[in-house]
Write the structure tokens for this entry.
Amino acid sequence: MQTTAITKLSPTEILEKKNAEALLAGGQNRIDAQHKKGKLTARERIELLLDEGSFEEIGKFVVHRSKDFGLDKEHYLGDSVVTGYGTIHGRLVYVFSQDFTVFGGSLSMAHAEKVCRIMDLAMKNGAPLIGLNDSGGARIQEGVVSLAGYADIFYRNTQASGLIPQLSAIMGPCAGGAVYSPAITDFIFMVENTSYMFVTGPNVVKTVTHEEVSSEDLGGASVHSSKSGVAHLSTPNEVACISELKRVLRYIPQNCEEIAPVYPYTSSGQETRESLNSIVPENPNQPYDIREVIEQVVDESSFMEIHKDYAENIIVGFGLLAGRSIGIVANQPAHLAGCLDINASKKAARFVRFCDAFNVPLLVFEDVPGFLPGTEQEWNGIISNGAKLLYAFCEATVPRITVITRKAYGGAYDVMNSKHIGADMNYAWPSAEIAVMGAKGAAEIIFRKEILSAENPEAKLQEKVDEYSQKFANPYKAAQRGYIDEVIVPDQTRQKLIKAFKMLENKVVNAPRKKHGNIPL
Ligand code: HXC
């Protein structure tokens, strides 16, 4: 489509015509094709995302400057991205939305400049950046100029990291090096069946490795939300995706200098939660769903789980406690007995670092029998990956509270926000077992000779297990040392936490001056 011929029109008419032309982007046929694929257009997405009437567009008439391969004859007002600012729940956000109807949303230098412009504004003004991605990647006709445009964005993503929240939604293709912009951002949301992310597509995969794989199986929403962990949330359609984007913003501040919004909360005066008393089974080897604990402790229906289908042995997510946002990290005894493994450590470490960067206090529920044993874990680096979580907790300066519901064994006891690595308050339920290892394993090692030489080894083992349990499989040894601040009845947990987080509200930590640490990446 050519830009508007401006003869015989009044200045206002010219503007109106240009505005109409920009709104039509790549043309009605391409808009229809987009809808046929079950996808919304870039502008429709923005409309759904922002508070009604709040969108202010920037760079609506920008066009690409490419002259090769006939591009000098093909211009679309705004090029292949819509950029600007608006509000969500009344709070300022900056947004870019790639327009697949214009050159398949591909990134020209003009496109990159528009994105960079709002990234700069977002950083200067301290407000979240939301990217809606739907692009065929580098504008092939522009060559290296397009690659430069990507790098300009990656650089800003990194500058913005930890300064303002950055959220990415993948709503179509996102391939090649283009994936690295969302990858640097804090959270990636994907739409099932219409979005995919990969560094090399199915054709290249086939040529190089002879594997036959579809785009969906290689890099669709379900793969990235369960196998690779690249996506934090997978949603059935675009409307649900945008609604989840808006939801997560409720729990996070505008920037690293602020705290998350505080919501009105009137206590009914009754904060005990009796159902908590019966969630942990009497048999220490029986699983239970830690989500039940979380849901009883936080304000009603406020728990928003992140990364739900990845590393299910650890749960992370946001919740409200008496109207205030908290980040929750919890071992999940219902999956792999709640063991820490490589993926769980990476998942939780990244979440802890997000919360710490953006002043969201951390609440940890602990029921962990230890690190997952095995060659697969060792060969793939459970040592350096487990250290990520340890490091993330050690360096976090936000208020940090731990509640041990059952097992806290071995190195995992130290890692899961123990007092020794800087937690502010550590509670344990009476069912807590804080020890180097489980009673049976411990008895088998330290009383091995005695058990083997006994007349009835089984009875001897049981006697020693009972002896060890009595001594260590409880919270009282740790409480004697002050490693546990208080042993609490489960139904008191919510009120204890409300008071303790209030007490920690003005926590200040003066960390030693340095450039930055060296987290074991
Ligand atoms: C220019 C592009 C384009 C691109 C698509 N189009 N990708 N134009 N540069 N990268 C155009 C098409 O020519 C077409 O124009 C329109 O967008 C829609 O594309 P279709 O192919 O008709 O759509 P669809 O069938 O849905 O397929 C979408 C697609 C496919 C899978 C994304 O277009 C495709 O494979 N594109 C190329 C992807 C690619 O190789 N990109 C470079 C990756 S390397 P018309 O005029 O017909 O509507 C890269 C490096 C980044 O990105 C590095 C950063 C460090």
About this structure: The mean pLDDT is 95. The radius of gyration is 27 Å.
